[in-house]
Every structure is written in structure tokens, then in C-alpha cells.
């Protein structure tokens, strides 16, 4: 069998008699090799085009972030000059971290945490700010802490601890092909697209958030203050709404 297989791999001398089956096999293998070569070339060409488009989109995103920040600074300065108060725009994005285990937890909060995909201690997810989500957070407030993440925090979390859900498996985001295969139909082909969609709470936020596996964070450096008490209490604590101060906690947990 090894000798017969070797015949199809070597060049047959001119004028030599070649069995018909061997000739057919050689022709088939040549066609398959050519088809494979063409498919690889097309795939490489498509990948290069997508990469170039992603670079352009990334530059556009950076400009958008910078313009938004500059506009806010300008409005704050105008308000200060005119002796007015500047009302900050309402946050659209939440990051929720589970800080309590399952012991002595009643069934209702346990079910809500399951719906929020916070099944383990120190799991974290991005959520859109709306009435149903805020009502759900009220039910589980003693078991979670949450706030409004900055662009830097979103980027660090996704780049360092971002994993995708592919066929119900936890896959690291090591290649843009993984993202394209799952979210390409929504126009998302790279990590920067994911960051932009999450941070701006775009039209495909739900699909992107469901694609991202819940973040598995470490215990915070320096520890918690007191998990039995709320963050806003006079004596200090951990659970509840931290608003922008969630960024400090996430940097210690990332």
C-alpha cells in the first residue's frame, strides 16, 4: 500500500506506462491541491481587506471618543463661565460584579443572578441601563456591586479577560476570525468593534454582550471593606451602586 501511494507523489518518466487508476488519482489530487491553493489565497485576500477596514474603523472610533470627551470639557467650561451647573449626561452602560456566594441566599435573588449570568463569585457582566435591569438589580443589591465603567476599563477588561461563547464553549479571543464567524453578520469583525459596541451601547449590544463570556475576575488587591454593608452607608461597605468609582475596584480586580 505504501509503494502504491508513493507512485502518486513522484513524477512519472515520460513515455512510461501509467495505470489508469493511478493517472485518475494524480489528476484528482492536482485539482484538489489547486482548489485548496485558490481558497487559501481568497481567504488571505479577504482577511487583509477586513484588517484594513478594521484599522480605518479603529481610527474613526478613537476620533469619536476624543470628540465626545472634548465636547464634554467644552460644555463644562461654558457652564462654569456663565455661573451655571453642568448636568452630566446619563450613563448608558453598567458593569455588575457579584461579590457574595450562594450560602443562605433565597431562591428569588438566586434566580435573578442566574438571569444576569452571574453564576459564580467575582463574575462580571456588561448591562444596558434601563428600567427592567435596574429593577432586577434592586432585588440582588446586597449580593452585587455595580457602576459606570470608563472607556479605559472596558478596553482593559475585554483585552485581558475577554472570552467568547462559541458553540457553548469558552474560547479566548485570540483571533479576529473567531469574532467574525460569530458576529460578522452584525458588522463586527474585531476586538475594537466589540469595545465600541459595548461602550457606546450600540444597536447590536445584546448580541455582543451575549457573545462575551461573563468575566472571571480576581479578588481585589487590598480586599473588600465590608461586604455586609452598602457602599453608600456612612460606615462604608461594598455592595450597591458605586457609579464612576467602580473603575477603581475593577482595576484592583483585573
TrEMBL record:
Residues 18-89 form the Large ribosomal subunit protein uL30 N-terminal eukaryotes domain. Keywords: Coiled coil, Ribonucleoprotein, Ribosomal protein, RNA-binding. InterPro entries: Ribo_uL30_ferredoxin-like_sf (IPR036919), Ribosomal_uL30 (IPR039699), Ribosomal_uL30_CS (IPR018038), Ribosomal_uL30_euk (IPR005998), Ribosomal_uL30_euk_arc (IPR035808), Ribosomal_uL30_ferredoxin-like (IPR016082), Ribosomal_uL30_N_euk (IPR012988). GO terms for molecular function: RNA binding; structural constituent of ribosome. It comes from the Eukaryota. Residues 23-78 form a coiled coil. The keyword DNA damage does not apply. CDD domains: Ribosomal_L7_archeal_euk. Residues 94-144 form the Large ribosomal subunit protein uL30-like ferredoxin-like fold domain. One of its GO terms (cellular component) is cytosolic large ribosomal subunit. The keyword Lipid metabolism does not apply. Pfam families: Ribosomal_L30, Ribosomal_L30_N. One of its GO terms (biological process) is maturation of LSU-rRNA from tricistronic rRNA transcript (SSU-rRNA, 5.8S rRNA, LSU-rRNA). Belongs to the universal ribosomal protein uL30 family. This is 60S ribosomal protein L7-4. It comes from Cladocopium goreaui.
Amino acid at each position: 500500500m505504501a509503494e502504491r501511494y508513493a507512485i502518486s507523489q513522484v513524477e512519472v518518466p515520460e513515455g512510461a506506462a501509467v495505470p489508469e487508476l493511478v493517472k485518475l488519482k494524480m489528476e484528482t489530487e492536482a485539482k484538489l491541491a489547486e482548489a485548496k491553493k485558490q481558497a487559501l489565497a481568497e481567504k488571505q485576500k479577504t482577511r487583509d481587506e477586513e484588517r484594513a477596514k478594521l484599522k480605518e474603523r479603529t481610527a474613526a472610533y478613537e476620533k469619536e471618543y476624543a470628540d465626545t470627551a472634548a465636547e464634554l470639557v467644552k460644555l463644562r467650561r461654558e457652564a462654569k463661565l456663565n455661573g451655571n451647573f453642568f448636568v452630566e449626561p446619563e450613563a448608558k452602560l453598567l458593569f455588575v460584579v457579584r461579590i457574595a456566594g450562594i450560602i443562605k441566599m433565597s431562591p428569588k435573588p438566586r434566580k435573578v443572578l442566574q438571569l444576569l449570568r452571574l453564576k459564580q463569585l467575582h463574575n462580571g457582566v456588561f448591562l444596558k441601563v434601563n428600567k427592567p435591569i435596574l429593577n432586577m438589580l434592586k432585588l440582588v443589591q446586597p449580593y452585587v456591586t455595580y457602576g459606570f465603567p470608563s472607556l479605559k476599563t472596558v478596553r482593559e477588561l475585554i483585552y485581558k479577560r475577554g472570552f467568547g461563547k462559541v458553540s457553548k464553549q469558552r474560547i479566548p479571543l485570540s483571533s479576529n476570525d473567531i469574532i467574525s464567524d460569530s458576529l460578522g453578520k452584525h458588522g463586527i469583525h474585531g476586538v475594537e468593534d466589540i469595545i465600541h459596541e459595548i461602550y457606546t451601547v450600540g444597536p447590536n449590544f445584546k448580541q455582543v454582550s451575549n457573545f462575551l463570556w461573563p468575566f472571571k475576575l480576581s479578588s481585589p488587591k487590598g480586599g473588600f471593606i465590608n461586604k455586609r454593608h452598602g457602599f453608600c452607608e456612612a460606615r462604608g461597605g461594598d455592595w450597591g451602586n458605586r457609579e464612576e468609582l467602580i473603575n477603581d475596584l475593577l482595576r484592583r480586580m483585573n
